[in-house]
Every structure is written in C-alpha cells, then in structure tokens.
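Why does this matter for the project? Reviewers at the last site visit asked to see concrete outputs rather than summary tables. In response, this paragraph embeds two records directly. Each consists of the residue sequence and, immediately after it, the corresponding structure tokens. Nothing has been edited or filtered.
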Amino acid sequence: MKMFVKEGDHTAWRFKMSTTNFTVHRQTMEDFFCSTELSEKIHIPLICLSVVNIIFALTATMGNTLIVIALQRETALHPPSKVLLRNLAVTDLCVGIVSQPLQIALFLILLYQLPQMCRYTYAVCRTARTILCGVSMLTTTAVSVDRLLALLLRLRYGQVVTLKRIYGAVIAFWAFSTFTAAISHWDYAVWLVFGISSTSLCLVTSISCYSMIFLTLRRYQNQVRDNVQEQANQTIPLNIKRYRKTVFSGMCVQLALVSCYLPFLLVSPFAYPSRELRRSQTATFHVAVESAVTLLHFNSSLNPILYCWKITEVRQAVKDALRRLFCSSNQPRTGGSGG
C-alpha cells in the first residue's frame, strides 16, 4: 500500500510538472512578442510599421470592397470560379478590417509598453492572422486546381465542378483554418509545424497544377499546328489564347502570394520562443518578424490590383461599378439643376 501511494504521488508530480512546463511555454511565447526590453529599442521601427499597416489596411479595405461589389454584378465568369474569387476577396477584406487593425493595435501597445494587454492582443491577432491567411492560401490553391480541371475535363467540367462542391470546399477551408488557429493556443511548436507543412503542401500543389497546365497547353498547340483543317486553325488557337490569359492571371496571384508569404515562412521557424533562441535573438530580429507579418498583410492590398490588371471580366465589372457609383452620386445634382 505504501508503494502504491508513492507511485501515485510520482504520477501526480509528473502531471503537475508537465502542466507547469506547458504554462511556462505559453508565457515564454507571449513574452517573446511583448518584451518591454525589445520594445524600448525599436520605437522608430514600430512607428514606421504602424503607419505602413494603416496605409495597407485602407487600401485592402477599399480595394477588396470594390472587388466584392464588382463580382456581385459580374455574370461572365463561370459560377464556381466566381465563388472562389469572391471568397478570396472577402478574406482579403477581412484582413483589412480585422487583422491589420489588430496588428496596428499591437504595435501601439508595444510602444506604450503594456505587457498584460499585449498578451491578449497578440493572442487575438495571431488567431485572426492564422485563419485569414490560411483561407487565402487554400483558396489560391483551389483556383489553380480549378484551372487545371477546366483544361482537362472540358465538357465534363460543369458536371464535376459544381457550385455545391465549391461551397463545401470553401466551408472546409474556413473550418480547417479555424482548427489550425486553435492549435496555436494549445502548442506553439505543433502549430508551427502544422502551418509550415500545410503551406508547403499548398505551394507544391499549385506549382504542380500550373506545370501540368503548361505541358497540356503545349501538347494542344502541337496538335493544332499539325492539324490541316481550316476550321480547327480558326477556333482552337483562340480558345487556347483566352485560356492562357486566365491561367496567367492565376499565376500572378499565386506569385504575389508566394512573394508575400515566403519571408514569414523563412523567419517564423526561428521565432520559436525557446530559451536558447531567445538568447541569440536581437531587436533587429524582432523587427524582421514584424516586417514579415506586414508583408504578409500586403498581399491583401495587392490582390485587387492583380484582379483588375489580369482578369478582363473583373476589370470590366469594376469599371461598371465605378460608373454606377459616380452616376448615382451625380444624379441628384442633375435633377436639381433641371428643376
């Protein structure tokens, strides 16, 4: 009986130590981003980052609001593709009105050195960033898969890629990203590995899709070149040319996403708040992490520009939306002067 009590005490002691280590780990992670010692050394960079994030928040909000309105009125795009683009625009809009204001608040709290408030703000900011950036990455990957299926399936594309399945995929994207954000509150290391793995998988999938698209297009062009029928020479090249523009627009969005996400993916593994790494981390590294986060958010301001530049249907819909907006604002003046 005595030995049993000792065994139970030993088990309870191990459980208590593991709980204590988990709490210390959580506190260490929060302290890394909310250290007053580091914030005292980077006042000017924090002010600059705050101003830059304010500008990006305004451009992301205005640009994506216009894109959402334009896609609501646009009818030329295929409905499943339109749902994916709309989901991407809504996600970028949420970055501008939720994630970036939280990031700005975090910078201001660091400037005023409020560590307790910084802990809660950082937790909320990390959660919002994980959800929105995760949905953006998954949606961009889905766009590349959608383009590949449109090329390979052709007439069967409308039967396979339906609105119901696309809506189900979008819901799954939000659920998966929310689950990933929840992991960050349980264990930072698991969240880090999970996030890097899923992001790498998305990038590999997109690269594979676009590689297959280029190989398929080249094969189609060779077939057209060898075809001696005049009708084929008049119709197929035009379809390939139009499809190539759509693929190129998707590649531009993908390239912009990779360029904005890559610095954060390179820096985030070294931001793991272990004691060994914290000893070697300096104020410059702290600024690098926050700058990578700012570049991450910049992607939401860049996407609307790419939509209007590379997608003809979206550009025309934006022009129509702006024309209606200006006409409706000038209509009361015209009526008043006429009376």
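We now turn to the second protein, recorded in exactly the same manner.
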Amino acid sequence: MKGYLDTLEEVLEKLNTKRTGLSAEEAAGRLMADGKNKLKEAKPVPLWRRFLSQLADPMIVILIAAAVVSGMTAVYAGESFADVIIIMIVVLINAVLGVAQESKAEKAIAALQEIAAATSRVMRDGKQQTI
C-alpha cells in the first residue's frame, strides 16, 4: 500500500493511463463514474446543538450547579433568588457568545476555502492543463 515506492510504469498501469495523460472523453467518463476528487463536507451542526454544547463546558456545569445550590438555599432560608438569576444570566450570555464566535469562525473558514480554490496540473490529450 506504499504507492510512493512504485515505479512510473507501475503507477501508469494501476491508474490505466499513459504518459500523455487521458483524453478529454476518458477524463469526462471517469468524472461521471467516480465523481469529483473532493472530500465530503461535514453536515452543519444545528444551532440548538451548538448552544447545548456550550453548556457542556466543565466551568459552565459548575456554575449551573452553583445556581441550583444557591436556589435551594434561597428557598430554605426564604431569601431572594437574585444570585440564581445573576448566575443563570452569566451562563446564558456565555453560551450565546460562544455560539456567535463559532458561527463567525465557520464563516471565516468557508470564505478562506472559497479564496484558496485548489488547482491541479493535468495531462489532457498530450497537453498540460491547469484545472
């Protein structure tokens, strides 16, 4: 499985081609049969799942646990729920900001991929072309 050790003749034989490259018809046929030489793109993660993943951070879990404990002590002592509300507001703001940052990063990566479109030099009908 070490293709880099193969000789030129072995590679040409395995790929069923010759030194002059493929004909335009053969290349089109292989494109139809095998598809584009492209990696599969990951499915986009839904917004709600990204939001929940922000809440799975260990520090956020600790804050939520602190809010629960604070809420229970507030009920037991008959005090206000101000601490609970403040902690939960901080947790929600953190999650919203995290999702927003992730969205911006994904858009930036997509823009970079558009800018850096890959090209290849190929032999078609005995002539070198860039596709």
